[in-house]
Structures are given as C-alpha cells and as structure tokens.
Specification:
Blueprint: H1 2-10, H2 14-26, H3 33-48, H4 55-77, H5 83-92, H6 95-104, H7 109-130, H8 143-151, E1 153-158, E2 161-166, E3 171-173
Antiparallel strand pairs: 1-2, 2-3
Helix pairs in contact: 2-3, 2-6, 3-4, 3-6, 5-7, 6-7
C-alpha cells in the first residue's frame, strides 16, 4: 500500500507533513483564515512526538492555536479579519514559518521563526505594495463589490434610474 511506504519514509510525522502540504497548497495566492488553523494543528501534533518541548515553543503553539481557532470561526461566520489577526497570521503562522519551526525544533526554532517571519513580512510588502498581489485574506466582501472587482462592471439603482458602471471600457451609462 502507498500509505505504508509513506509511513516508513516519514514515520510519525506524516500527519504533520500532510497538514503543512495542505497549507502550502492553499497559500498559492493568499494565506487563508483556515490555513492558520491547519498549520497550528500540525505544529501541536508535532509537539506530541517530542519528549519535552521548550515552554516558549509550547506558548508559540498555544497562541497559534487560539489565532487559528479565531480565523476558522471567522471563516465559518464570514467575519472580516483585521490587521491584529492578519499580520501575525501571515508572518508567524503561515506554512513557511511553521514548517521551518517544525524542522528546527526544539533547539533552533526561535532563530528560524525570526528569519522566516522577516522573510514573510518583506515578501508580503513587495507582493502587495509593489506588485498588487494579495497575500492575506482580509475577510468576505459584499457580493456586489466582489462581482464588481471580478468583472469591473456593476449595475445599481439610483432612485428611479438604473445605472451601469463599466470600468473596463471607461463608460458610465444612464
């Protein structure tokens, strides 16, 4: 069986690697609210394989789990998340920092977390500010606004008049 070969190759860390792989796949375009939850689950599952984890590493995992639960609830309830969630979600609990912490824990994880966080922060600035590519999901948008962003067209009622906006063509029709 394929799963037997995977277990022999990766041992007891197979569930951790699977969760991180899902996180990397979901983060193709942005860090979703669910990714933080799956990454911190992977981190906490990894802790189970350690004989003893440093207290600061456990706190990092606990804080991430709380942040992940909040993000998961925000996803389920269509809440918009703010900078107090998104900044640590992207810089501390996206897949790359969590994967590097797992690979270097329990001894060299602090330095790797700082390095990965600074790298994520720098990359997010370049991607969002310079290239216009969103790297974090900030929550749901109103349906009309989402359609407008996707199509650059919107029809809306202005009193008794139906108006149509089409930015792609630069027209405003009455």
């Amino acid at each position: 069986m394929i799963i037997d070969a995977l277990v022999r190759a990766f041992g007891h860390n197979l569930p951790v690697l699977e969760l991180l792989l899902v996180g990397f796949a979901v983060e193709k375009h942005y860090v979703s609210r669910v990714t933080v939850f799956t990454n911190t689950i992977a981190l906490n599952v990894y802790f189970l394989s350690l004989d003893a984890a440093p207290r600061a590493l456990v706190w990092y995992g606990d804080l991430g789990l709380l942040l992940g639960l909040y993000g998961f609830a925000a996803y389920l309830l269509n809440w918009k998340t703010g900078i107090l969630y998104n900044l640590p979600a992207y810089t501390l609990y996206s897949s790359l920092p969590v994967a590097l912490v797992i690979l270097t824990a329990p001894t060299g994880w602090v330095a790797m977390l700082i390095l990965a966080s600074l790298g994520s922060f720098g990359a997010s600035y370049v991607l969002e500010e310079e290239l216009g590519i969103e790297v974090a999901h900030w929550g749901p948008r109103h349906g009309e606004l989402s359609r407008f962003i996707q199509t650059a067209q919107m029809t809306y009622q202005d009193g008794a008049v139906l108006r149509k906006v089409d930015l792609a063509l630069g027209k405003f029709e009455w």
